[in-house]
Predict the structure of 5-formyltetrahydrofolate cyclo-ligase.
Amino acid sequence: MSLLQQPVQPALRLSRQAIRQHARQLRQQLPAATRASAATELVQQVFDQAELTSKQHFALYLANDAELNTEPLIKALWQAGKDVYLPVLHPFCPGYLLFLHYDSTTELRANHFGIPEPRLNCANVIPVAQLDVIFAPLVAFDAAGNRLGMGGGFYDRTLAQLPRHSPCQVIGLAHNCQQVAAVPVEPWDIPLQQVITPAKYFDFR
């Protein structure tokens, strides 16, 4: 059992930065074969959920920093006739994301983090509230659905725009090793409704 998955006493609770650093190291150390099989297993986990396969508008992301590879899932969603959207750094509201339609013909460019994103075209933007499913990247998560990201707060700010009782499902995607005993929670954190790993589907609702 990883140190981060062991029960944590309140006085010994690890900082967000310590958890973030260790979880990133764990996923970066995964062998290439494990990462490849994880991406395939993710597709099966998603398509095993009838609640998800009935949806139409899916926001995803392109993997960075050894995140769980979403490309096979994106291709599977395209083949199933679903609409896929990718996040783009908001050009006028720093710290926020826009979601743009993405298909095999979409031109990508690297943002200032070096992450590929679609070229901004207002005609391809979908309001966050119109998305059916948002698959969010994360660094670590716990059994209560608390999410730890990279520290920029982009998803927390953007997800805070969803109406209180929005039907949009916000689901974290992670390698199995990214589950930790407890994520220290801040007031601005938006908890996840579900997390999907290659091995398990977590429902926190």
User: Anything to note?
Assistant: The longest strand covers residues 83-89. Residues 27 and 162 are 30 Å apart (CA to CA). The chain has one domain: 3-203. The two ends are 26 Å apart (CA to CA).
